[in-house]
Amino acid sequence: MSAPGPAPPALSTERLTVRFDGKAVLRDVSIEIPLGRVVSIIGPAGSGKTTLLRSFNRMNELIPGAKTAGKVHFRGVDLYAAEIDPAEVRRRIGMVFQEATLFPKSVFDNVAFGLRAKGVEGDLHGLVEEALTVVGLWSGGAEVLDARALDLTAGEQRRLSIARALALKPDCLLLDEPTAALDPAASAKVESIIHALRHECTIVLATSDHTQAGRLSDLTAFLDSGRLMEYGATQELFTNPRNERTESYLTGRLP
Amino acid sequence: MTDQILPGSHFDAKLTALQNLLLEMAGRSEEMVRLAVNGVVHRDPARAGEVRAAEDRIDQLELQIDERVMELLALQRPMAGDLRFVFVVLKACRDIERIGDHAVNIAGAGERAAVHPPLPEILEIAEIGDLVRRMLGRALGALVNRDADTARAVIAEDKVVDALRYSAFDIIMSYMSHQARYIPAGMNMILAVQNLERIGDLATNIAEEVVFLVEGHSIKHTRSAGPDEHGP
Fold it and tell me: How far, in Å, CA of B43 to CA of A26, rounded?
């Protein structure tokens, strides 16, 4: 037995470099996501936010021409080790994408999809309804379960995507631009769900809306041209950034 | 994606306009202090009217700054150094408004001094007046130039204000204890000195806010504001 020490971070990278067709999109990024915290990744378009998020659950390797160097750990375990099953990784580290990825099926089927893929058998209603309740889409009416997912509003579709990830009871949830293109009311609902989920799992979100990072996260990381420029407590980073590039980005003066 | 606030030049112009309002407010409050001290030293009641007239403009400027700060916070969402700047302007604006109030109190002392049997001249009063006005001016200069060193020099001068105040008190007390007819004028002078001392404190507050603006951490309520010492 090893001596008791501090719990390993939920997720961490060590000198992570990701290249697409030889072009480095992430460069030498080392970051630790503490267990049970909400961490935001901010940065200009093309800074590597989504790529960093995707490296946490091995989504980048699905992209042809992608090459990853460096380490990614989940609770101290090397995620990219040969014996690790990527499907299991993606089950425990759920992801909600920026683009709608719902199937042209019912609300129920969309949430049940992941459960069935995982091999959960029998009556899935309890699990589906629990996930839908968390995101505020279900309050007891069967008609919601049968509604076509693509008939929902944009905000409801985003919440359904979150429910689909939650049904698998992930340890970590990765959210890419969780409120992009949503109106303020729909955004507020999604943000309050994220806020409530902080007690359920570790959350990493990539966002172009840095005020959202300020509202939701304990820690914020600023990426610029694939490099981690600054990482720390959100309040400190937003009020007194140490890095000039962070200051320029936050104040809208990045050239 | 809307991850930028607004084009820098437009936003910068708004921040500069806000700073200019604060500078006008500070300039006017400094002039109020000068007039009020003049009224006390020369026992000239006419100065009080001028001081009170200037206070109206200070109040207007305070309201304008409040309004612009609200607008900036709501519409521009300043971040990082810009956020600290807006926060500091709002606090400095309160301090300057209070300086105006103290100048009005001193002007009142000037009116009363004119009707009391005069005290022999107390040089410390004009000296404290000059000193606190200079502290205010330098604190505002430090804000404009983002100059923490000058701000710290202003903070250090507050000790000189305190020393001059006690020296003035000793002199006034000795007059009052020797001749009872000096008591009304002496009490009046103590009030004037006390108000001047508060102006020194408020100029010190502004200087502390400038250090926060430049360095991002507060040095208020620490034992020493010096760069090499740390408070408890």
Answer: 74
Mark yes or no for CB contact B80/A247 under 8 Å.
yes
Cβ–Cβ under 8 Å, residues B105 and B195? yes
**Least CA distance to B9: which residue of chain A?**
A253
User: Quick check: A211 and B81 CB within 8 A?
Assistant: no
Closest-approach residue (CA) in chain A for B83:
A239
Domain-located, residue A2: no
pLDDT tens-digit readout, A107-131? 999 999 988 888 888 889 999 999 9
Residues of B within 8 A of A45 (CB-CB) are: 1, 3
The pLDDT tens digits for A46-84 are: 999 999 999 999 998 888 899 999 999 999 999 999 999
**Domain of A245?**
11-250
Helix, strand or coil, per DSSP, at residue B37: helix
User: To probe the interface with B, which of A235, A244, A253 has the most B CB atoms within 10 Å?
Assistant: A253
User: The domain B8-215: what is its CATH number?
Assistant: 1.20.58.220
A21 in a structural domain: yes
ipTM summary value: 0.72
How far apart are the C-alpha atoms of B202 and B217, rounded to whole Å? 19
